[in-house]
Amino acid sequence: MSAEERQRLLQMGADLEAAWHHPAATAVTRKRIIRVVLREVVAHVEGDQIHPLLPWQGGDHIRLTVRRTGGVKRGAPSSRRR
Predict the structure, then answer these.
(1) What is the pLDDT of residue 81?
(2) Is residue 56 a contact partner of residue 63, using CB atoms and an 8 Å limit?
(3) Residue 78, pLDDT above cutoff 60
(4) Is 54 exposed, middle or buried (0-12, 13-18, 19+ CB in 10 A)?
(5) Which helix (H) or strand (E) holds 63?
(6) For 59, which DSSP code?
(7) Does 74 score more than 90 pLDDT?
């Protein structure tokens, strides 16, 4: 990667951060940003923890561990469905 290409990538990253934190950025805007930079989200649930894998469009990925908050469980029957 040339110095010019590297500088351009760094500038794009700064623009992305500015767009994310812009006062007019809505949840819709942030969701669009996420859809552009992530390929998918894969999560494994283990007890009270969720282990999401976040693969970036460029090929790198992040693994996280987050504590489950006790919200609605996917696939669980809802009392509202009848």
Answers:
(1) 40
(2) no
(3) no
(4) middle
(5) strand 61-63
(6) S
(7) no
Q: Which residue shows structure tokens 């390929």?
A: 39
Amino acid at 3: A
Helix (H) / strand (E) containing 53: strand 49-55
| Unique residue bearing structure tokens 């894998």 | 53
* Residue 51, amino acid: H
Q: How many CB atoms lie within 10 A of CB 39?
A: 13
Residue 37 neighbours by CB under 8 Å, 6+ apart = 16, 56, 57
Digit-coded pLDDT (tens) for 16-64: 888 888 898 899 989 988 888 899 999 999 999 999 999 998 899 999 9
Nearest to 12 by CA among 26, 33, 27: 33
pTM to 2 decimals?
A: 0.57
